[in-house]
């Protein structure tokens, strides 16, 4: 169908599993869709809370892509429990101390970061922005934090590496054909990625019902 972006499931030769791949039939549609002016017009005001980005994304991104980013598997118990787990964490107020200089910087695996926050590996950033992971890496660099790049990225490790000086980790899986993993790790290392994040919970991909409906 003309101008339709299609979310497809395709066989993953390496693991014998399924993974999601995206076929953009007309990339110009995506670029137009994300033109800054359109997004600005849709923004009533600047977000004041990180949750508000969710609503902005809902308005800015085609439903199929929004559902991919926003949804969990099956009845979404784990997604809900993850959010509840964050709600259960509270801050201990410390009063009557010098707060003129607040420093949240720390290190992750020995690498400095401005706060104990980094970007988790998530796939296919071009669904959200035409520059994809390159833009994510630049944002991480601007925030002095670490970017974890997904194996399912739309950009190559070379593109991300040459785009900025953010400290980068690379996420991958252990494939049946071990040499595939070895080659990926070596390529990441050659491009200055500092650590490997090994994802082990995907021998089978979750059954994401919204993605199934959007097919
Ligand atoms: C849209 C989306 C895509 C993701 N893609 C990947 C991926 O490609 N590789 C991976 O190891 N984890 C992936 N994850 C998992 C995240 O890295 C992270 O482990 C998960 O979201 C749990 O963290 P959270 O509770 O902060 O969301 C993805 C998560 C989401 C929501």
UniProtKB/TrEMBL annotation:
Keywords associated with the record: Oxidoreductase
Source taxon at top rank: Eukaryota
Signal peptide region: none
Annotated FMN hydroxy acid dehydrogenase domain residues: 42-215
Pfam families the record matches: FMN_dh
Cofactor(s) listed in the protein's UniProt record: FMN
Keyword set includes Acyltransferase: no
PROSITE patterns: FMN_HYDROXY_ACID_DH_2
Record-level Gene Ontology MF annotations: oxidoreductase activity
Keyword Ligase belongs to the record: no
Any coiled-coil regions, as ranges: none
Protein name as it appears in the record: FMN hydroxy acid dehydrogenase domain-containing protein
């Amino acid at each position: 169908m003309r101008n339709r972006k299609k979310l497809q499931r395709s066989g993953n030769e390496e693991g014998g599993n399924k993974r999601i791949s995206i076929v953009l039939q007309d990339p110009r549609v995506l670029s137009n869709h994300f033109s800054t002016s359109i997004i600005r017009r849709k923004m009533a005001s600047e977000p004041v809370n990180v949750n508000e980005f969710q609503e902005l994304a809902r308005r800015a991104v085609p439903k199929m892509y929004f559902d991919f980013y926003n949804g969990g598997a099956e009845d979404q118990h784990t997604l809900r429990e993850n959010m509840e787990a964050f709600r259960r964490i509270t801050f201990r107020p410390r009063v009557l101390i010098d707060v003129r200089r607040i420093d949240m910087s720390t290190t992750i695996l020995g690498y400095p970061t401005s706060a104990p926050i980094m970007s988790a590996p998530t796939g296919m950033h071009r669904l959200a922005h035409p520059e994809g992971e390159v833009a994510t890496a630049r944002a991480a660099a601007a925030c002095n934090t670490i970017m974890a790049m997904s194996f399912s990225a739309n950009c190559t490790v070379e593109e991300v590496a040459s785009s900025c000086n953010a400290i980068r980790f690379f996420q991958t899986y252990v494939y049946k054909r071990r040499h595939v993993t070895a080659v990926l790790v070596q390529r990441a290392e050659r491009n200055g990625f500092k650590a490997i994040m090994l994802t082990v919970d995907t021998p089978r991909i979750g059954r994401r019902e919204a993605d199934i409906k959007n097919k």
